[in-house]
């Protein structure tokens, strides 16, 4: 428990953190990697280039300062981050290293404002926050290893099948190399892959949602090739998996993680909205809803640029043909001539609120995932419609961002 005096000091630094939070976390990462270059094997350096990780960490530190009197208010956020930490292999011994570099960065950025009193208060606060993370993560490590077929760290899997799903998305069917049991997971969860990509000095870790239902035999991930552009290098891991991972090859995976999961306890209608490769966690949820809750009304809306990048078309059509409770809509931003000939889409352009209102029920639980602009549009549409926060669930395919 933080002392009263230090709580007051932390509260007084809230406005400073609001202004300088990102400068502090940017400085923090520079210091961390300079003194601990081995951590470059754990962090996604591309997220650093884009500043998304610095923002996510600054927001977390700021939220901790704002809620310093009531840290349990940030427990849901702690749990989400802890899932990622557990999947990446963050351990208790890493916390003092991060704490030391965070305080050093504060001192450097805040200058005279970082008095001994402020640094002492933040040192104590960091300890309390770190203990909360370490406790939650300890429990997650225990759950991952005690589950039948579970494990901690990275386990070797063999690619059993590699299936091209669209011009940009390919699925990999993965079986444990040790032929041992395979842990179940909750639909919506992801695994983390550890890859030594060609031309990279450090190993790369990336998360991929499990795109099929738990089946005791294999995990399936479906990966979009991030091709890059003239002004932007192509994605390191996705292109490496597409180009260099073949049937019979092995891949290292950590055990399933994540709190964006399908809630089988809720009844009432459910709406899934996916944009592009954001379909992966939702496919698993959709199949689960149809199997486990056959009386539940399900609406699935998938948005893609056009039919050539629309993955798993046949699987979805088959699900729609064989389940009366499923209403399935396809939205193409720019349908091709071929798409027009086949006329297999429901709407052209983007999903907007008036159209959403015409196909979905306001009382539904809404699950969505896709590119950030897609997610913002859906989130803001649902808010404008008056859908309450507890009916809205979503996942970012990157560090947690803002949808406001
Ligand atoms: P990176 O090398 O990490 O690059 C990321 C992007 O930045 C690329 O588009 C690249 O072109 C661009 N870029 C690279 N360098 C720069 C630069 N200097 N300036 C500007 N732009 C740059 N992805 C899937 O395909 N399927 C999934 O099911 C899936 N599930 C996910 C689940 C979760 C919970 C999360 C967090 C992410 C998920 N992702 C999924 C995303 C995935 O983890 C990777 O982020 C994605 O594959 C890109 O990784 P990469 O190594 O190919 O690209
Ligand atoms: C990710 C906070 C300690 C390693 C994150 C994220 C936040 C965060 C907010 C972004 C989660 C997201 O994707 O949305 C914190 C806080 C910490 C802490 C508040 C201390 C109390 C640590 C430690 C390590 C670590 C000790 C180990 C070295 C990572 C890594 C990521 C991450 C590797 C993923 C970043 C990426 O590759 O994109 N953390 N963290 N964190 N954290 Fe921590």
From TrEMBL:
Function (record text): Is involved in NO detoxification in an aerobic process, termed nitric oxide dioxygenase (NOD) reaction that utilizes O(2) and NAD(P)H to convert NO to nitrate, which protects the bacterium from various noxious nitrogen compounds. Therefore, plays a central role in the inducible response to nitrosative stress.
Binding note for cofactor: Binds 1 heme b (iron(II)-protoporphyrin IX) group per subunit. Binds 1 FAD per subunit.
Catalysed reactions, semicolon-separated: 2 nitric oxide + NADH + 2 O2 = 2 nitrate + NAD(+) + H(+); 2 nitric oxide + NADPH + 2 O2 = 2 nitrate + NADP(+) + H(+)
Location of the Globin domain: 1-138
Positions of the record's site feature: Involved in heme-bound ligand stabilization and O-O bond activation: 29
Record-given protein name: Flavohemoprotein
GO molecular function, a single term: oxygen carrier activity
Domain spans labelled FAD-binding FR-type: 152-263
InterPro entries: Cbr1-like_FAD-bd_dom (IPR008333), FAD-bd_FR_type (IPR017927), FNR_nucleotide-bd (IPR039261), Globin (IPR000971), Globin-like_sf (IPR009050), Globin/Proto (IPR012292), Hmp (IPR023950), OxRdtase_FAD/NAD-bd (IPR001433)
Species annotation: Alicyclobacillus ferrooxydans
Residues covered by region (Reductase): 149-404
Domain notes: Consists of two distinct domains; an N-terminal heme-containing oxygen-binding domain and a C-terminal reductase domain with binding sites for FAD and NAD(P)H.
Sites marked Influences the redox potential of the prosthetic heme and FAD groups: 84, 395
Keywords: Detoxification, FAD, Flavoprotein, Heme, Iron, Metal-binding, NAD, NADP, Oxidoreductase, Oxygen transport, Transport
Binding site for heme b: 85
NCBIfam families assigned: PRK13289.1 (NF009805)
Binding site residues for FAD: 190, 396-399
SUPFAM superfamilies in the cross-refs: Ferredoxin reductase-like, C-terminal NADP-linked domain, Globin-like, Riboflavin synthase domain-like
UniProt GO BP: cellular response to nitrosative stress; nitric oxide catabolic process; response to toxic substance
Family stated for the protein in its record: In the C-terminal section; belongs to the flavoprotein pyridine nucleotide cytochrome reductase family. Belongs to the globin family. Two-domain flavohemoproteins subfamily.
Active site positions: 95, 137
Cofactor: heme b; FAD
């Amino acid at each position: 428990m933080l002392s009263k005096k230090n709580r007051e000091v932390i509260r007084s630094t809230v406005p400073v953190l609001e202004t300088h939070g990102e400068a502090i976390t940017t400085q923090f990462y520079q210091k961390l990697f300079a003194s601990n270059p081995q951590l470059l094997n754990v962090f996604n350096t591309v997220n650093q280039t884009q500043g998304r990780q610095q923002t996510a960490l600054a927001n977390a530190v700021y939220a901790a300062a704002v809620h310093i009197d009531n840290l349990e208010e940030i427990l849901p956020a702690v749990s989400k981050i802890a899932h990622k930490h557990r999947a990446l292999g963050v351990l208790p011994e890493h916390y003092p290293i991060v704490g030391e570099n965070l305080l050093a960065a504060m001192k450097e950025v805040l200058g005279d404002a970082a008095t001994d009193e402020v640094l002492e208060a933040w040192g104590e606060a960091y300890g309390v926050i770190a203990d909360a993370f370490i406790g939650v993560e300890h429990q997650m490590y225990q759950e991952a290893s005690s589950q039948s077929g579970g494990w901690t760290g990275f386990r070797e899997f063999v690619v059993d099948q590699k299936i091209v799903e669209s011009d940009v998305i390919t699925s990999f069917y993965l079986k444990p190399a040790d032929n041992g049991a395979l842990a179940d997971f909750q639909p919506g969860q992801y695994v983390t892959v550890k890859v030594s990509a060609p031309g990279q000095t450090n190993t790369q870790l990336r998360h991929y949602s499990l795109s099929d239902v738990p089946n005791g035999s294999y995990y399936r991930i479906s990966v979009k090739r991030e091709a890059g552009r003239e002004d932007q290098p192509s994605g390191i891991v996705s292109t490496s998996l597409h180009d260099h991972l073949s049937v019979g090859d092995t891949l290292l995976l950590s055990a399933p993680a994540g709190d964006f999961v399908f809630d089988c306890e809720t009844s009432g209608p459910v709406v899934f909205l996916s944009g592009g490769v954001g379909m992966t966690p939702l496919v698993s949820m959709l199949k689960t809803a149809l199997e486990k809750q056959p009386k539940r009304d399900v609406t699935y809306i998938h948005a893609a640029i056009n039919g050539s990048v629309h993955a798993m078309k046949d699987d979805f059509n088959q699900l729609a043909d064989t389940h009366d409770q499923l209403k399935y809509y396809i939205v193409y931003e720019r349908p091709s001539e071929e798409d027009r000939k086949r006329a297999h889409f429901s709407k052209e352009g983007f999903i907007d609120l008036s159209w959403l209102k015409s196909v979905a029920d306001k009382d539904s639980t809404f699950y969505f995932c896709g590119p950030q602009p897609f997610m913002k549009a859906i989130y803001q549409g649902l808010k404008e419609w008056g859908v309450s926060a507890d009916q809205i669930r979503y996942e970012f395919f990157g560090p947690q961002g803002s949808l406001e």
